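User: I'm writing a tutorial on reading structure tokens. Could you give me a worked example: one chain, its sequence, then its tokens, then a sentence or two explaining what the tokens reveal?
Assistant: Sure. Here is the example chain.
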Amino acid sequence: MKQFTAILLSFIIFVGSLFPKADALQLAKVGELVKHYNQHKNSWNENISFLEFLAMHYSATSKHFKTAKHSHSNLPNLNSHNTTTLCEPTFDKKIVLPFVAIFKVFSEPNFVWKNFYRFSIVQTLFNPPRF
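And here are its predicted structure tokens:
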């Protein structure tokens, strides 16, 4: 089952990479694209190739898509943007793990503050003058 899932996900990622601006779910509308191409060839007697058809419908400078006499709402959309949100439930249960010290670092508390400040005339000789 793991191998089948890995192959399926790899196939979906591969097919999605073939259309970088489109969502992989737009592949379900490819049948509508072929049907629309056949409609152009048969109903309107247009002698165009499939690449010319794609340029007519997906080119940025195409006027056909904007002023068409038929609907293009079922065609695959190549300008989809996706946002993925992952929501995971959280559980308010505290997990307490017992801690056992293996060795002691300090045998007695070592929290004594010592003042190491010392005035030295030698330090004033090495400091540059400040203005």
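What the tokens reveal: The radius of gyration is 36 Å. The chain has a mean pLDDT of 75.
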